[in-house]
Amino acid sequence: MQSLRPFELLAEDPTGARLGRMSTGHGTFSTPVFMPVGTKAAVKGLSTEEVRETGARIILANTYHLYLRPGVEVIKEAGGLHRFMNWSGPILTDSGGFQVFSLKGLNRIDEEGVTFSSHLDGTRCRLTPESAVEIQEALGSDIIMCLDECLPDGATREETEKSTALTGRWAARSKAARREDKALLFGIVQGGMYTDLRVRSALEMVETGFDGYAIGGLSVGESKDVMTEMTRAVTEVLPRESARYLMGVGTPADLVRSVEAGVDMFDCVMPTRNARNGMLFTKHGKLVIKNSRYERDMEPLDPECGCYTCSHYSRSYLRHLFMSREMLGARLNSIHNLFYYASLMESIRENIKARTFGRFKSAFLSGPMAGD
Amino acid sequence: MQSLRPFELLAEDPTGARLGRMSTGHGTFSTPVFMPVGTKAAVKGLSTEEVRETGARIILANTYHLYLRPGVEVIKEAGGLHRFMNWSGPILTDSGGFQVFSLKGLNRIDEEGVTFSSHLDGTRCRLTPESAVEIQEALGSDIIMCLDECLPDGATREETEKSTALTGRWAARSKAARREDKALLFGIVQGGMYTDLRVRSALEMVETGFDGYAIGGLSVGESKDVMTEMTRAVTEVLPRESARYLMGVGTPADLVRSVEAGVDMFDCVMPTRNARNGMLFTKHGKLVIKNSRYERDMEPLDPECGCYTCSHYSRSYLRHLFMSREMLGARLNSIHNLFYYASLMESIRENIKARTFGRFKSAFLSGPMAGD
Fold first, then answer.
1. What is the ipTM of this complex?
2. Interchain proximity A69–B42, CB inside 8 Å
3. By three-state DSSP, how is residue A231 classified?
């Protein structure tokens, strides 16, 4: 265990939004933070220098995918994930649980762990709370996640209760499985769409004690109100002095709402996946680049944006690349969307610091990006 | 017409290899030169800054593709191709002839021009020597190519003679069609695999008079010996003081052999296309990155290479990206291969300058990259 608390709470806005700083084995970052997703040890299409230039300071990589390919031994031999992928900043790795439960290769789940088939070649694989920690430690991750069971939206109360209890026992085993103290370990709060189960799960995680607390199993189809309600139910019982990470969320409006609900960390494929599909985030709303109105539009995506893409290329050129299926388009779009997300988080932090987050939030949620 | 000769012959090696400097409306470049291919106004996957960092100083773009998409009017509105694609250096555009004749959309060829169907939507299009010049001038190209007829390998002498004569008449019309004097205009020597027809075509082009001379219709399936024989037949009758451009060539060994045959300029999709397919050029020979021997190979592609890819990434990581179909792999591989080509041209120029090209060539053609 690290001797000092990894998370420092620097300020709280009257709304409940928090400004903080997280320290890891590969440097610090300010919160609230958004983490771009580099599933297979690469943020799709981007160099790590470009990722950093967008303003991102921590990235997420996927234990499930890296475990299957290239395999843990390869990354160990490379000297760890940071060296393998040429990223010197902090890396958070998920446990693999979400992929095991969502990629349809699931064979069996028991008290001990989970058996699944590789989506690559069907090989039967086994993941336990202990092996998930071991793998993430071997990858050299800075923030490692406990293995949890992920239930689909619509699970019954009984199913949810049973599953959440298992996630709690797995979390305790994850903590006991740690061999090194370099990485931070986060527990994951589950509990489905049941407020009392969410609270019970959160209290259980706090009882076990982790370096930070994630909220899993949200943004799976529930309404925005339910998502916020579940988030708030959890953050209200989590310790003030620990970081909270809302997994897989979300849209810009989701981020603003969830910051108000006391969340410090986020990850989502949305900015990069949407970029590849030609959907760009701007201060003036979403922009679908394939639209013919942009054919001769020589303005940048967002005239007020300072990203590399907006500094060098027109909507007309980006539309041309998209229509021509040129991969440079996916890359330039990804740079823009990640810059948008990083800038949004920076604005959020500045407003929390200035104690103006409430006003910022109201303006944002009545603006062109409110609809999601 | 420009008042000064665009090409300055700086040195000739006893072998016949030439060192020169070409001046264009967007700067100068040293020859022999290799031009990366940016078919659709993008070198696939790369930013123009990256292209420049590989050592490339001039790129090629494709009139046929840009004419169909995004269309000349869009690029004109953007202020020309340079601004559209954010490349401030010289651009050479081909005439579109090669694509018309190779993309299977050809409908009819007559004295006036060529009718073809767009490979995008089947629209019937018409290209004449005059319109090819007009389009390239509108794109703002620095070096524009005459429309020529391209014959497949295996054409009879009679077919070749007839076609080459047409290319000659089209070339004269191309010259007469020029409206601006900013761009340089290159004639294209054809003549198939018939030495006397090659010579006749070259003399005809010289008689008409161009800013430079291209050699077309080679590297279409003929043997390396025939290619060199045809190249030499042409360069021997072309004026010493004009640049010669061998179109669509080639492998590293092709470049070395053709420089000896008096060629100054080259373009080819090979370095970038092979990169996307995981084939890398190194001083020690070709490297196929998907090979399992590279799974745990933590060396760079070429330990002596100074490119961005070799400075930051291992074979192991590049193999992982290739196996995972991550587009970052195509990009990093392309950077490496273009750097290899640019470095090869730089070595060639240095050896011509030092009058050691003959030795360099012999060593190269008995080395690991000789086999192509």
1. 0.96
2. no
3. helix
CA dihedral A70, A71, A76, A78 (to 10 degrees): -10
Tokens (6 digits) for A215:
């909220």
CB B171 within 8 A of CB B240: no
Packing angle, helices B357-365 and B327-353, rounded to 10: 140
Catalytic residue status for A94 = yes
Mark yes or no for CB contact B78/A41 under 8 Å: no
Residue A122, SS3 per DSSP:
coil
The sign of the torsion formed by the CA atoms of A81, A85, A91, A97 equals negative
Gyration radius (Cα) of chain A, Å: 20
A51 in Cβ contact with A123 (< 8 Å): no
Nearest to A297 by CA among A309, A285, A289: A289
A253-271: pLDDT as tens digits: 999 999 999 999 999 999 9
Cβ-based contacts of B85 with chain A (< 8 Å): 317
The torsion defined by the Cα of A24, A27, A31 and A35, in degrees rounded to 10, comes to -90
- The shortest CB-CB distance from A328 to any of B42, B323, B328 is to B42
Which of A175, A172, A163 is CA-nearest to residue A114? A163
Domains, chain A, ordered by start? 7-268 (3.20.20.105), 270-362 (no CATH)
Which residues of chain A have a CB within 8 Å of the CB of B44?
326-328
Q: How far apart are CA B357 and CA B325, in angstroms?
A: 40
Structure tokens at B150: 């391209």
Structure tokens at B266: 């080259």
Q: B78 to chain A nearest CA, in Å? A: 6
Nearest by CB: A77 against B74, B296, B326: B296
Instruction: Name the residue with tokens 């601004």.
Output: B83
Q: What is the pLDDT of residues B29-69, one digit of tens each?
A: 999 999 999 999 999 999 999 999 999 999 999 999 999 99
Identify whether the C-beta of residue A282 lies closer than 8 Å to the C-beta of residue A305.
yes
- Give the tens place of pLDDT for each residue, B104-150: 777 789 999 999 999 899 899 999 999 999 999 999 999 999 999 98
Q: Where would I find the beta strands (DSSP E) of chain A?
A: 7-12, 18-24, 27-31, 33-35, 59-62, 91-94, 106-109, 114-117, 124-127, 143-145, 184-189, 212-215, 243-246, 265-267, 279-282, 285-288
Write the CA distances from A62 to A40, A66, A67, B70, B200, integer angstroms.
6, 6, 8, 38, 64
Say if the Cβ atoms of B73 and A330 lie within 8 Å: no
Strand ranges in B190-323 using DSSP code E only, listed in sequence order:
212-215, 243-246, 265-267, 279-282, 285-288
Check: pTM over 0.80? Answer yes or no.
yes
Question: Phi/psi of residue B94, each to 5°?
Answer: -80, 170
In terms of phi and psi (left: phi > 0; alpha: psi -120 to 50; beta: otherwise), the region of B315 is alpha
Name which of A87, A51, A45, A50 is nearest B49 in CA terms.
A50
Q: How many CA atoms lie within 13 A of B42 on its CB side?
A: 24
